[in-house]
Amino acid sequence: MEIIIQKNPAAAAEIAARIVARLLRKKPNAVLGLATGATPLLLYKMLAEMNLDWRRVATFNLDEYVGLPPEHPQSYHQFMWENFFRRVNVAKKNVHIPDGMARDVPKFCSQYEKEIRAAGGIDLQVLGIGGDGHVGFNEPASSLASRTRIKTLTRRTRRDNARFFSGEDEVPRHCITMGIGTIMEARQCLLLAFGHRKARAVAGAVEGPVTAMNPASILQMHPAVKVCLDEPAAARLKRARYYRWVYANKPDWQK
Ligand code: GLP
Questions:
Q1: In order of start, what are the domains of the chain with their CATH numbers?
Q2: Is 254's pLDDT higher than 90?
Q3: Is the pTM of this model over 0.85?
Q4: In whole angstroms, what is the distance from residue 146 CA to residue 42 CA?
């Protein structure tokens, strides 16, 4: 894992944006895994302002609420189009977001997995992290080998996400999410976390034991993960000084 600690979210998001931009310039038909939530908003804003060509890029989103149609204001479909896709020249046919209205959920989920494989697999997966360590909507105790499937949201996640709805009761109880096994197959992962509310989950993910109780900790087993943090999100890392030193002293060829 490469732990990159920056003063504020803007500086951390800028590094993340440069990583994505470099990939797109090298591979114009890259396959990106994308996340929702407040965390990647800055990244999406920065990417939209860069001069990048998205025409041949394919995207796969991590998750969607079950029961929300794509036009629902709180659906992740709306979130992605509103906050990102409408601002770049991505082709609609290359955008994939789980269908929260799928009639046959298991069938839809295995189809989603097939589509990821058919696209050549995910080159770079953008991730946020829940306060309990969830990635996508893989809540604590999710199988570390899980694939795209239906999940039941925890009380905490529904409470955390209630700020986007008119109340906690409005937050759906179920979601479709890529599994942890699905995420682990991405060639590269880029996890972003900002704010002190994420500090405990980040410390567990980076320095704690690999455990299904902190699903993001499985990323320790992934060969290519970058973690972009602001200072408050890094506050509980025991080896923060070392990570800063590593980043500041990279060999020239690696910068
Ligand atoms: C949601 C999403 C996750 C996201 C997490 C954190 O549950 N499904 O993909 O990482 O919340 O959200 P935020 O970035 O708003 O803190």
A1: 2-246 (3.40.50.1360)
A2: no
A3: yes
A4: 29
